[in-house]
Design goal:
The chain is mostly helical. The chain is built from six helices and no strands. The longest helix is centred in the N-terminal third of the chain and has 49 residues. The radius of gyration is 20 Å and the shape is globular.
Length: 186
């Protein structure tokens, strides 16, 4: 029995050393995902806020939101732009990652609702939700998995040791917030 226990402990030690050897690859993969999603969302948010990169700014985005049935369209354009920009920045930096992922997730749920009529794949200018689904899934994955070791969260005592429960709670918050916004839509 003691020999079985020692064998189990030795196997556990080998397993943890193997995980440590693999961890840098895992962390690099999370870093790539965070940077790509984060910077794409920063760009998308600044299109709404400032009209950069061919965007409509607050006025143009507000008009689109009004046509899409959202009340207080200019205010929601500002909120959407800030959410995408700050959520993207949070993801890129790995800062408050569960909340940043949830903000992006909730925003993409609203985008899916708006683009739903265009089908799943974008065939023309009528929309399509495939990219919204991809961004939402990436943001949810980061909220659940955490940012990895190369992240600002490593310096925050509460988030230093990522907990899946933080990600789940944040995603529920993002989904509830998205549902509230969709409920007020005409």
């Amino acid at each position: 029995m003691t020999s079985l226990l020692h064998t189990g402990v030795a196997a556990s030690r080998r397993s943890s050393s193997t995980e440590e050897a693999v961890a840098p690859h895992h962390d690099l993969g999370l870093l790539v995902l965070r940077l790509v999603l984060g910077f794409l969302l920063i760009g998308h948010g600044t299109q709404k806020l400032f009209g950069w990169f061919g965007g409509g700014g607050i006025e143009g985005t507000g008009q689109f939101f009004e046509v899409s049935g959202f009340p207080a369209a200019r205010t929601l354009a500002l909120v959407a732009g800030l959410t995408e920009t700050l959520g993207g920045l949070g993801l890129a930096l790995g800062l408050l990652t569960p909340l940043a992922g949830a903000a992006v997730f909730g925003t993409m749920l609203n985008a899916m609702a708006v683009n739903w009529a265009g089908g799943f794949f974008m065939m023309d200018q009528d929309g399509g939700i495939e990219l919204d689904v991809l961004v939402a899934a990436g943001a949810a994955a980061l909220a659940l998995a955490g940012p990895g070791r190369f992240a600002a969260d490593r310096f925050l005592p509460v988030l230093r040791a990522h907990r899946t429960a933080y990600g789940i709670a944040a995603l529920v918050l993002g989904a509830v917030t998205a549902a509230v916004v969709l409920l007020v839509r005409n």
